[in-house]
Amino acid sequence: MDKAAIKRVLLKISHEILARNKGPKKLVLVGLQTRGVFIARRIAAMIESIEKTAINVGILDVTMYRDDFRAKMKQPSVQVTSIPFDVDGTSIVLVDDVLFTGRTIRAALDAIMDFGRPKKIQLAVLIDRGLRELPLAADYIGDTVKTQPNQEIRVRMTELEEDGTDEVTLVTLADDDEKGDL
């Protein structure tokens, strides 16, 4: 995916979110660190452009909620979580870049419940790559790319200096390049 394709699928997701939620009332977006935050902000901007109303956007880091972070040898890198609004009774759309095993989303569900009791929680992802380990599915999907275990979806976004561009690529890893889901 190039910049134009990413913009098209995020606009499609924005319209689908509005349709399924019957507008923006009580709707909030929560982006998962790191690229999910930028995607959530872009979707919020699109919804604001369509509906002429601002959407709250939160930031969620799920590192400490993951079931596999203790198994990794290196120290986990914990990032900012900021949900400066009441989640009780809201319709939350969790936003992430790639849906893979489902473990990140399971952790996000645990984490969001520590903030209150939303009316419902939905999931929007830029890419669903399959190979789920947990029975989770996205409500809104930009694109589905069937992958193999030795492949990785890499999302790059202009908001990150080290990325410098908007693109999604599929990379086949050499055996010694494979890394875990954390």
Description of the molecule:
By secondary structure, this protein is α/β, with parallel strands linked by helices. The chain has a single domain (3-147), classed as Rossmann fold (3-Layer(aba) Sandwich), CATH 3.40.50. Helices cover 25% and strands 25% of the residues. The chain has helices spanning 3-20, 35-51, 103-113; strands spanning 27-32, 56-60, 91-99, 120-128, 140-144, 151-156, 167-172. The strands form two sheets. It has a five-stranded parallel β-sheet. Strands 6-7 form a two-stranded antiparallel sheet. The protein is globular and about 45 Å long.
Descriptors for this entry?
two-stranded antiparallel sheet, 182 residues, alpha/beta
Brief write-up:
This protein is of the alpha/beta class and 182 residues long. The chain has helices at residues 3-20, 35-51, 103-113, and strands at 27-32, 56-60, 91-99, 120-128, 140-144, 151-156, 167-172.
Q: Layout of SSEs?
A:
Elements: H1 3-20, E1 27-32, H2 35-51, E2 56-60, E3 91-99, H3 103-113, E4 120-128, E5 140-144, E6 151-156, E7 167-172
Parallel strand pairs: 1-2, 1-3, 3-4, 4-5
Antiparallel strand pairs: 6-7
Helix pairs in contact: 1-2
Would you tell me the structural class of the helices and strands? alpha/beta
What is the residue-mean pLDDT, rounded to a whole number?
92
Distance between the termini: 24 Å
Under the CATH scheme, the architecture is: 3-Layer(aba) Sandwich
